[in-house]
Amino acid sequence: MERHIEGDEVRSSADLRIWKSQHSVLSRKFVEVITKYNEAQVNFRERSKERIQQQLEITGKKTTDEELEEMLESGNPAIFTSGIIDSQISKQALSEIEGRHKDIVRLESSIKELHDLFMDIPMLVENQGEMLDNIELNVMHTVDHVEKAQDETERAVKYQGQAQKKLIIIIVIVVVLLGILALIIGLSVGL
């Protein structure tokens, strides 16, 4: 392009400088974009390599970096999946892992429930303690009231006995007085 620009004598030197400037700016930007593209490609390749390495390790296959590079270079997906998908051992191991995971989730749920129960126990104990304290206080008050009632009942029985004695004495006195009065009236009338 530079040759084409320099070869065209009809154009002015100002146009030529503008074209050269634009050409160099665009060339630099193109190089920057290509460099970024190459970096992105390398980063993607490394991430893919790490992911494939992890997947192979999960299935129990150990590979070196060279073997992994060969797998990536060949572009044959069967290399990655051979022995993984069709392997009965891998399927069984996956099934066992899933079963263990379910068991762990159930165990975790049971432990959480147990933890919640243990967290509720102190509150229940505290509430029951307050209730027991109230019951104990009421029992003590009841004992006091029963003792007072017993004392008052004994006094009432004592007073009732004294009242009956006094009533009998009063009746005897009234009868004696009536007898004396009748005697006096009878003597005074009969005389």
Explain what you see.
The protein has 191 residues and is an all-alpha fold. The chain has one domain. The protein contains five helices and no strands. The longest helix has 103 residues, at 88-190. The protein is rod-shaped, with a radius of gyration of 58 Å. The model has no long low-confidence stretch (mean pLDDT 78). Residues 94-156 form the T-SNARE coiled-coil homology domain. Pfam families: SNARE, Syntaxin. This is Syntaxin-3.
Task: Give the SSE map.
Elements: H1 2-7, H2 13-58, H3 65-74, H4 77-81, H5 88-190
Which key terms come to mind for this protein?
5 helices, about 190 residues, about 0% strand
The share of residues in extended strands comes to under 5%
The helix fraction, in percent, is over 70%
Element-by-element helix/strand order: HHHHH
Mean pLDDT: 78
The helix-and-strand class reads mainly alpha
Helix count equals: 5
Low-confidence stretches: none
Quick structural overview:
The protein is 89% helix and 0% strand. It contains 5 helices and no strands.
